[in-house]
TrEMBL record:
Gene Ontology MF terms: hydrolase activity; zinc ion binding
Stored InterPro entries: Metal_Hydrolase, Phosphotriesterase
Residues the entry annotates as binding Zn(2+) 2: K143, H176, H205
Modified residues annotated as N6-carboxylysine in this record: K143
Protein name: Phosphotriesterase
Annotated source species: Streptomyces olivochromogenes
Pfam family, one: PTE
Positions of Zn(2+) 1 binding: H34, H36, K143, D262
Keyword vocabulary terms for this entry: Hydrolase, Metal-binding
Length: 321
């Protein structure tokens, strides 16, 4: 792939790193900002997303509803199938962004985690700049995870490595918040001690803990707030999400909002009778339009993801002094 064009001043313009290469943020179209085409964890036996044909059908169904891009938050070691992503993207016409990173410890064997000790940040940087395994597919963000109302040693280790990868590349960091909690602890660590700019942090699953005060504090800090998971059957907070999103928009934080489906099981896919990715556009989008107005909802689906994911990618470490 040829280097990104530079501006007259020599700066590399911000681009979103997709599985088919870096693209201008405005090309993302309508974006599902948090989802999974492939996913598998020993902690969730029998719920794996492994079928490439089903993933293709789900992307095609999303495209039929007007979808233009999907951000897969599946990190290292959880069945990302990075080599399959470019063909799926080409076949369906949907941009796909892949992730590096590491989930909670429960999703890995102790042996696999020991193998990563001392080199986790290097793994993240390599997957962001050179590619995932031998696929040549470069990740476009780092995904890590917090715990329930706290950050354990594993979370601090992975977030420290994610911050190092950010400083080396500029990559955004997406954070799984366990049941929507510990958002402020995450920001204290990443944006305080580890000096990651808040606008490079995406906080996921905030809808699972509908605390409007914490959500507003996170937005005031400058992070992006992802409301995701309408495809999941085990989180009964969909009814409160429009009010939370409206409260944030009314407070002036409409530009910090992201929306995603977070499809994590085969049964949840639309091609298997579940809501899946299309539900985000078929039902969630018009419901939010009633609360926020169609114009703002369109910006949340199109402009906000581009701002959250677009990076002036670099390949040499730089840290604030």
């Amino acid at each position: 792939m040829s280097p990104a064009p530079t501006s007259p001043g020599g700066a590399v313009p911000a681009r979103v790193r997709t599985v088919l290469g870096d693209v201008p943020p405005e090309l993302l179209g309508v974006c599902d900002a948090h989802d999974h085409l492939f996913f598998g964890s020993p902690a969730l036996p029998g719920q794996e997303l492994r079928d490439a044909s089903a993933a293709r059908a789900e992307l095609a169904a999303f495209r039929e509803q007007g979808g233009g891009s999907v951000v897969q938050w599946t990190p290292y070691g959880l069945g990302r199938r990075a080599a399959d992503l470019p063909l799926l993207s080409r076949d369906t016409g949907v941009h796909v962004v892949a992730a590096t990173g590491l989930h909670q410890a429960v999703h890995y064997t102790p042996e696999s985690l020991r193998e990563l000790r001392g080199r986790l940040a290097d793994v993240f940087v390599r997957e962001l700049t050179s590619g995932i395994g031998t696929s040549g597919v470069r990740a476009g963000l780092v995904k890590v995870a917090g715990g329930f109302h706290a950050l354990d040693a594993h979370a601090r280790w992975t977030m420290t490595a994610a911050a190092e990868a950010h400083h080396a590349t500029g990559a955004p960091i997406a954070v799984h918040l366990e049941l929507g909690t510990a958002a402020l602890d995450v920001l204290d660590l990443l944006c305080g001690a580890l000096e990651v700019p808040p606008h490079r942090v995406i906080l996921g699953h905030l809808n699972r803990s509908p605390d409007l005060v914490v959500q507003r504090q996170a937005a005031e800090a400058g992070a992006y707030l992802a409301f995701d998971g309408p495809s999941r059957a085990n989180h009964a907070t969909d009814w409160s999400m429009p009010d939370a999103v409206r409260a944030l928009a009314d407070a002036g934080f409409g530009h910090r909002l992201l929306l995603g489906a977070d499809t994590t099981t085969a049964a949840a896919r639309s091609v298997n009778g579940g809501p899946g990715m299309p539900y985000l556009l078929r039902r969630v989008r018009p419901r939010l339009a009633l609360a926020l107005g169609a114009e703002l909802v369109e910006r949340v689906f199109t402009q906000n993801p581009g701002r959250a994911l677009a990076v002036e990618w670099r390949s040499t470490p730089t840290r604030p002094t």
